[in-house]
Design a protein that fits this description.
InterPro entries: Transposase_11. The protein has 17 helices and 18 strands.
Amino acid sequence: MSDPARLVPLHRTGLRKLTLEQAVRRAQLLVDRSGLLPAVQAHLHAETGAPREFTARALLVGLATHALRLGEMHLTKVLSTLADLSPSARHDLGLSEEAATYRMLWHAFTGLNRALETGSLAIPHNHHWVNRATGELLPCPAHCPHQPITTGEFVGRLLDASVPDSLQLTGVLAIDSTDFETWARRRSWNRAPDVDPDHLPVQDDETHDDKRLPNEPTWPRIGHDGRAQHTVDWDAREGYRSGTNGGRGQVFCGFDLHLAVNARTTTGPEVPFVFTGLHLAPAGSHKGEAGIALIDQVRARRPDQPPITEVLADRGYSYCTPARWAHPVRARGIEATIDLHPNQRGQHPGPIPGTVIIDGTLFTDALPPPLRRLPGFPIGMAKEDKAALHQRYDQRAAYAFTPHSRPDIDGYQRFKGPAVAKRVRCPNYPPSLRLPHDRPTTRCARGMPCACGKTITLGPQDMAWTRQRTVWGTSAWAADYGRRSAVESGNAEIKTHRLHIDRGFTRVMGTLKNTLLLAFAIAGLNVVLLRDWHAKRQRPDPWATLTGEPEQPRKTRRTGTKRRTTTLATLTAGEPPG
């Protein structure tokens, strides 16, 4: 962790908003780094006939430029951004002197959408590509490794391009889903939420709506997936969003936006919370399957970055049946740190005599009765009370089985008893009696069978629903799971602080079109977040370094009769900002 004393509040850094010229330079570099332009050009630009008036470069750079201005992703507003460009910038994008029309932009955007929908978007074989590991410009081989471009790869390339190569990712993903309402008006309602059976339990009193209007004639309809369709948006479905700030949960109609954010390792320094994955699914869809799709989207990219080894997920994912979440995660060689729903807690018999499973962890029967039933951590719990409860869970952890080896290729893993792990003293395991007396001594009867000194093997199916590397509720688990605040911070950025991704942020219909606009919006947000993160730590903006821009002038403030300018140099030198 960096020294908090070195952090400069963002409002004192004197940063100005990106100018339109700066946004254009970054947008052009973003598009070039993504490598998407040749594929979009090959699809949109015909080899015969009159040349296209609205070029593929104008489409991609226009969307990226508008996203960097952190505005709503309306195509009409993207068109206004293009109209604000200087004549030279418009010429660089291949636009004529005449103003582009909305019809031109819509035709190009729907053409890109259709290419991704039909799987016809591919990089031409005569294209040169950049080796991200060495920086070499190489001709595309006969069987190009980047063909074809799927929607997931399109989104991934944009997000990858928004993160400079100088920023080393950690291989730790914090994932979460948030609601994204459709722009289309709702025309019908269900009596109960239409969500997947693996969804977290929904209380009836949380979804009751006294103001529910009567259904319009012929609504609801049966959608293409067999679920009820309540709007003219053919992909939008009904879902459930949990309450925030003590409010009740609500039913909404639209999509679940699943996001992956780069989080720090358990012992590593702080890192910028940049978005590395995005997956949009109809609301109420299976969260576990969407989470796996999100993880696979990130794993398939950036060979120059560390592989994904950890995922931090909340109950929305971990509550799903193991076959649709825990098993696929473990099969990919990824460790999951999860929270437990009250339905996942409790006491169950262990796999061998002398063992017991409590709150998802395997313990020996020597665990004292006072430590077997511990309360949870309710929202609003006082900090002192929470710390005291963590200490009781720490006492319980001494009696837990701990990993004795890494998991095998087939998923089997050995675990050693607490006496073997030198955590407790047990009379049935004589070597443990030589341990210091500060270790707890079990009440196991000498000569009677117990599991304190045993080593057992658990298969991938054993305790798959709740198993994780740290004992739930302990201080170590709290520190481990607390890293998931990375994605919560990301949600706050896209919902409140920087963007306002809610109903009306886009005005298109369908999963694919919304995915494209959201991908550009979040890629642009990554660029701005990195700029501000480095400014607060008195470091140069990596995107300014990539574009070769000089140090940006900062805001000026009056102090008495003097006017002073705050720059990165003055902050680094320790001078107070003017």
